[in-house]
Each structure stands twice: as structure tokens, then as C-alpha cells.
Amino acid sequence: MSALPPLNRRDGRPTLAIVGATGAVGTVMLDILSTRTDVWGDIRLIASPRSAGKKLRVRGEELEVVALSEEAFEGVDIAMFDVPDEVSAQWAPVAAAKGAVAVDNSGAFRMDADVPLVVPEVNPDQAKNRPRGIISNPNCTTLSMIVALGALHREYTLRELVVSSYQAASGAGQPGVDALREQIAKVAGDTTLGTQAGDVRRVIGDTGPFPAPLALNVVPWAGSLKDGGWSSEELKVRNESRKILGLPGLRVNATCVRVPVVTTHSLTVHAVFESEVDQARAQAVLAEAPGVVLCDDPANYEFPTPADVVGTDPTWVGRVRRSLDDPNALDLFLCGDNLRKGAALNTAQIAELVAEEFTER
Amino acid sequence: MSALPPLNRRDGRPTLAIVGATGAVGTVMLDILSTRTDVWGDIRLIASPRSAGKKLRVRGEELEVVALSEEAFEGVDIAMFDVPDEVSAQWAPVAAAKGAVAVDNSGAFRMDADVPLVVPEVNPDQAKNRPRGIISNPNCTTLSMIVALGALHREYTLRELVVSSYQAASGAGQPGVDALREQIAKVAGDTTLGTQAGDVRRVIGDTGPFPAPLALNVVPWAGSLKDGGWSSEELKVRNESRKILGLPGLRVNATCVRVPVVTTHSLTVHAVFESEVDQARAQAVLAEAPGVVLCDDPANYEFPTPADVVGTDPTWVGRVRRSLDDPNALDLFLCGDNLRKGAALNTAQIAELVAEEFTER
Ligand SMILES: NC(=O)c1ccc[n+]([C@@H]2O[C@H](COP(=O)([O-])OP(=O)(O)OC[C@H]3O[C@@H](n4cnc5c(N)ncnc54)[C@H](OP(=O)(O)O)[C@@H]3O)[C@@H](O)[C@H]2O)c1
Ligand SMILES: NC(=O)c1ccc[n+]([C@@H]2O[C@H](COP(=O)([O-])OP(=O)(O)OC[C@H]3O[C@@H](n4cnc5c(N)ncnc54)[C@H](OP(=O)(O)O)[C@@H]3O)[C@@H](O)[C@H]2O)c1
């Protein structure tokens, strides 16, 4: 294990550790931290012993990656965790015990009653209510819709959500992206594929991390099997939406489907509110909401699509329609980059919220 | 114009005309008629004057295509129309005036109060109630779900549907399929595409019949713009479901989205019923329903996907779950081949229903 580089606190600004700096989310995090207003003193990059000694760039500086250990949290004020669930489960409490605030991107603590689940545009105050010294970042599918729904909830009060997802391959990490690209290369150029049952499956062979071919197909499955035939991903959308919005009785039924898109999750949402809605007012609420872009002019074919949204920060909303049956219901189509707002960006925003406490001191 | 080949009624069986025999749906129709129990006497193939004289195979025979004209319906008992709306609007009444029963696959007559909209597994009796001598075939998106929903409706009585579609390129005809294949060829092999806003759009250029790239993307639009921001396709799902099920007050909100699949539409459905539902009973109802295949064992990754369903006749249903909030609601995922049951097959089934009247005489 290499010796820890010394921490040089700059201007009394807080020190940040990024655990999992070498991963898919960690890589986007370094990119995001290099472009946002810099609130950080020192930054320490942490990963597995496999990556120790590796050099990565952030904020224009080259930093050495250190192996995860108790000492790695020495002097750290805020520690982001972009690592698998079991690594977070073990190490976020260690960071907290060393006095750092842990901001965790994994699923390890999201439903822990003593860990807030924070989306800065929706429930920023919850970031201060962290008895375990840990704050959780929601799942990417929930994050791709919740900023827009939070804005509508403030206006109309949510009662029920029916959600269908169009989830990108990168939600299954880099192996998902690699599998999709390989599959597309295999089906390209063949002008008969997709016309006979099983023909795509035969040409693709190994389906990678997905339970069926993804090229020229859609796959109604993400996550693991839970009671009643629900997938873990569908229950995350339900449980996390309830927790973030502070609505434990919110009715939520989701069906999660993977589509052949690299990055950016899309969702259709049928949202029922306590009060009557109005199309123009709902559009105005969304247009004004921080973190949301309204893209809704179907007469000019303007609606969000993953190809136009990927790589951007906001939640994009279009196809805003008032239900034809229920004056209290809206139907929407939303897109959000699952690696940015869906993961690294929201974690960075939470860490910046906590950083304000340090500068306020 | 070539002279009409003589009609030789075989065994007194009815004579069938296929108007639009050279088109995408017409081609599948010839294939379907060649494999189903043969109830037909003579078959006459009709298309535009451009195709007159062309020879096509059906039931192992080679037949000459004749140009559409009033005389072309001479001696015809049942005339299927697989042509654009405006051609059906003009010519189906002509066929009816000549004494044929017109079975129309276009959108021209679907919502006409004097034209029944028939799905043989759901409302076969309506086929006899045809004051104009015309019977309509539903839109492919509605047809991809309605047989399964009809079975559940008979058991539990439908009250509300929230539908999201994952529609295939061939719903936009052969130009849609060609555009998707060209786009996939353009994006294949590039390992950076789909990671920056607009990169896929730039490589694809012309998006063909779709309002945005379809490869590596999903597009929340199908049809034309109607009041309130709804698309014509979304209103078809609503209005046709109500008419077929005989439920003018059924609550239906749909969001229609195109996905990069060649053929076979998929749908998620949140269905609310008048009575309490049970997952196992609902699965049994679907498993027993004619025209439906239950494919629902997520523990073994068994659920329908377009790649496995394309080219088959039934409506496939999986992911059957009882709502976690409402004991009267089910969530489902369905797939149906939009060119078979979604178009040609259902038309053939309607025509066969009418043919029974001839043999009963
Ligand atoms: N992909 C998404 O859309 C998404 C969205 C939201 C949340 N998340 C969550 O974010 C977390 C990271 O996901 P990812 O896609 O970035 O995964 P990833 O690409 O596999 O990266 C995993 C990171 O964790 C590190 N790591 C693994 N085992 C470790 C150990 N024992 N000790 C220390 N470091 C270890 C790896 O370091 P080495 O490089 O040294 O192995 C790497 O930096 C996961 O919990 C995931 O569920 C992902
Ligand atoms: N594609 C689908 O998923 C789908 C599903 C359900 C229903 N439909 C409906 O089915 C109908 C046919 O669709 P398609 O996709 O098969 O269209 P298509 O491939 O464009 O075929 C059109 C057919 O109509 C004929 N035709 C066109 N103009 C004509 C005219 N003036 N007189 C006589 N014949 C004429 C064409 O004959 P020539 O070859 O001689 O031009 C051809 O046989 C449309 O109403 C469509 O909306 C399509």
C-alpha cells in the first residue's frame, strides 16, 4: 500500500474523498467536479488495492489513487462512495466513525430509517438529518423523474404514480454498454433479422448482463425477483419516491423495461394529484423548476429523447397532457442521464450541500 | 387495364378479394391465407394500376393482380382492404354497393357508429351488425393488447387502463423498417456514440419517417398531433379499446413511444377492475384465453420480448403482478406482432367469421 499523500487544506475548505474514483460513476464524478464551482479543499481518490498508485486527473491536477483503508479517511470531511453495495455497507460507517460525512451512491442504506435519501432540488433539508453520519443517493431510475415530480407535487400534491421505464444499458454498468455495442455490431447489415421468432437471439448468442437480447429488442426486466413477481428495480422506484417526497402512502406501480439505448433513462408517468391540474400551468411549473427543462412542442416535434439528453445535467420533460378522464391527472414523458443526475451529479450536489455547513461554521 | 380473370366458385365457397395485395400488410396476408384452414373459393388480388399484371403466390397458386375498379368486385363475396385510409374511404363503400362485405384494415371507418370494430376473440357477434356492409379492423397498437385485456375484462370487468407502448419500426410501414436498419448500420461499431447529446443525431442525419433518430434511441411520438398534446395513436388506443370492449366510459390514458425494434409492439398496462383481482387467477385466465400465451416465470427469466414473439400469432403476456396499493389492479407486460395479429391475421379472422355465414346458408 502506498503512503497517503499529505492533505493541504486550502482556505479552510472541506476535504473530499472519492471512494470508487476508478469506476464508471467515479469517472463521471471526476469530470463533474472539474466543471462545477470548486468548493473543495483537498481531494483524495480512493479505490481497491488493485488501483493504488494509479494517477487520475481532477480539477486539472493529477492525483494518486490510494487503497481503501481506515487511515484513508484521516482528515477527510466528506466521503463519497461510488462502489458496490457491500463495500459501502462495510466502509461508509468506518468513514462516519472517523468523523467524515459519508454520501453513498450504492443501495446499501437507501431505505435505512436513520439515513436520509436526498435530492437537493426536492428535499435538501433532509441532508442535515443524518444520525448515522451517512446520506444516501437514490437509484438512477427514480432520479430520472423525481426532480420534475417534486416540482409538480409542490404545486398539486401527489396521490398516485403509474410509471413505465425505458432504461439504458449503462444502468447495468460498463458491461451493459459493452454488451449492447457488441450486439448491435452483430445485427447490423442483416436485412432479415427481427422478422422471425428467435432469429435475433440466435445471431447474438451470449446476452451479457441482460436476460435476453437487447439489440432490436426490449427486455421487461431489471434487478432481482421480489415477492409478487415485482423486480427490485420496480420496488426501488416505489419505495425511494415515497421516501424522497415524504409521502409514505403514495400509490406507486412501476414496470421497468430495458431498451437498446447506451445512456439516459426515459420514463412515462401517469401522475394523479389531490387537486385539479391544468396543462399550461403544469408546463409553467416545470419550466420554472430548478434542474428541469421543459421540452414540449409536439407540433414542431419537440420532446426529449435520450439521444438529445445524454451528457446533460437536467431532467427533461415533454408530452405534458392532462388526462382525458381525470381532471386531477397528468401524463408525461421524461428523460434523465442515468450516469449524471442519475448518479454522480446528485451525489456531488449532496456533498456540496454538506460542504456549505463547513463554510458556514 | 388487364381483363379480369374469370371467377370459378369452388364448392360454393365464398370468393375473396384482397385489395392492397402488394403492400406490407397484403404480403403478410397472402402468407397467412396460405397456412390457415382454407375456407375460400376463388381469391382475387387487387392493387393500384401500377401493379396490374404482376403475379403473386397464394395457397400455392400463382394469381395475377388486377387494378382496383368497380368491376373488380364483380362476384366477390368478401373484400379485404389493406390500403391507405383514403383508398379505403373511397372504395370500401363501392365494394359494399356491389354486394361484398368489406373488411377494412385502414383507419377510415373504425370510429363510424355504423361500422363494427371487431376482434374475433373479444366481440365476434359485432361482425354481424354491419349496416354499411363494412367491418373495421383495429389499429395495431390496440390489437397488441386487447385480446388479453378482453379475457381479463370477462373475469373482472375493466374500469381503467394506463398504457405505455414500445412500438416497432414496421408500424410505420416498410419505410420505417428501412430507416431503422440504415440507422443501425450507421451507429454500429462506433464505441463512443450515445454518450454526448446530439452525437447519434449527427451520425444518422436523415431520420426517415420518424421525428428523431430511432437507433440507440426511443421516440415519444407516433401519428399526428391532436387537441391537448395527445397523439392520434394515443387516442386510437383509447377510442378503439372502448369500442371493442363495449365500454364507452372506460378510462384510458396512453403514451405511445417508438423503440428500435423491427416488428412486434410491446406494451405495459396498469389495469384497474371493478372487482378484486388475484395474481394466480389472472394468470390462469390468461393461460386459458384463446389467442393468448402466458409467459410469466421471471425466476427463470421467462417473459415475452419482441425478439421471441415476432412472426407468431398470439398475444403474449408476462410480468403479471397485482398492484401493491389497489387490490383491484394488475400490472402487465404484453407483446404482439403488429403485422400479424396487429393487422393481417385479425383481418383474416374477421373475414373467416363472415365466410361462416356463407357456408351456413
Ligand atoms: N451505473 C449506474 O447507472 C449507477 C447509477 C447509480 C448508482 N450506481 C451505483 O454506484 C456504485 C458504483 O457503480 P459503478 O457503475 O461505478 O461500478 P464500477 O464501474 O464497477 O466501479 C466500482 C468502483 O468501486 C471500486 N471497488 C470495488 N470493490 C472495491 C473494494 N473492495 N474496495 C475498494 N474499492 C472497490 C472499484 O475500484 P477498482 O477500480 O480498484 O476495482 C471502482 O472504483 C454502485 O453501488 C452502483 O450501484 C450506479
Ligand atoms: N404496417 C402496419 O403495422 C399496419 C397495421 C395495421 C393496419 N395498417 C393499415 O393497413 C393499410 C396498408 O398498410 P401497409 O403498411 O400494407 O401499406 P403499403 O405497404 O404502403 O401498401 C399499400 C397497398 O395499397 C395499394 N394502393 C395504394 N394506393 C392505391 C390506389 N390508389 N388504388 C389501389 N391500390 C392502392 C398498394 O398497391 P401498389 O403496390 O400497386 O401501390 C399496396 O398494395 C394502411 O391503411 C395501414 O394504415 C398497417
UniProtKB/TrEMBL annotation, chains A, B:
Residue ranges of the Semialdehyde dehydrogenase NAD-binding domain?
15-130
Binding, substrate: Q167, R258
Annotated residues that bind NADP(+) are located at T22, G23, A24, V25, R50, S51, S170, G171, N338
Active site location: C140 (acyl-thioester intermediate), H265 (proton acceptor)
Q: Which CDD domains match?
A: ASADH_C_bac_euk_like (cd18131), VcASADH2_like_N (cd02316)
Q: What is its EC number?
A: 1.2.1.11
Sample GO molecular function, one term: aspartate-semialdehyde dehydrogenase activity
| Positions contributing to phosphate binding | R110
Pathway it acts in? Amino-acid biosynthesis; L-threonine biosynthesis; L-threonine from L-aspartate: step 2/5; Amino-acid biosynthesis; L-methionine biosynthesis via de novo pathway; L-homoserine from L-aspartate: step 2/3; Amino-acid biosynthesis; L-lysine biosynthesis via DAP pathway; (S)-tetrahydrodipicolinate from L-aspartate: step 2/4
Matching entries from InterPro entries are given as: Asp_semialdehyde_DH, Asp_semialdehyde_DH_beta, NAD(P)-bd_dom_sf, Semialdehyde_DH_NAD-bd, Semialdhyde_DH_dimer_dom
> Kind of enzyme, top EC level?
oxidoreductase
Reaction catalysed by this chain? Answer: L-aspartate 4-semialdehyde + phosphate + NADP(+) = 4-phospho-L-aspartate + NADPH + H(+)
Q: Which UniProt keywords apply?
A: Amino-acid biosynthesis, Diaminopimelate biosynthesis, Lysine biosynthesis, Methionine biosynthesis, NADP, Oxidoreductase, Threonine biosynthesis
Instruction: Give yes or no: UniProt keyword Chaperone.
Output: no
Family per record: Belongs to the aspartate-semialdehyde dehydrogenase family.
Which NCBIfam families does the entry mention?
asd_B, PRK14874.1
Role according to the record: Catalyzes the NADPH-dependent formation of L-aspartate-semialdehyde (L-ASA) by the reductive dephosphorylation of L-aspartyl-4-phosphate.
Per UniProt, subunit arrangement is: Homodimer.
This chain belongs to the protein called Aspartate-semialdehyde dehydrogenase
What is the organism field in this record?
Motilibacter deserti
Annotated gene: asd
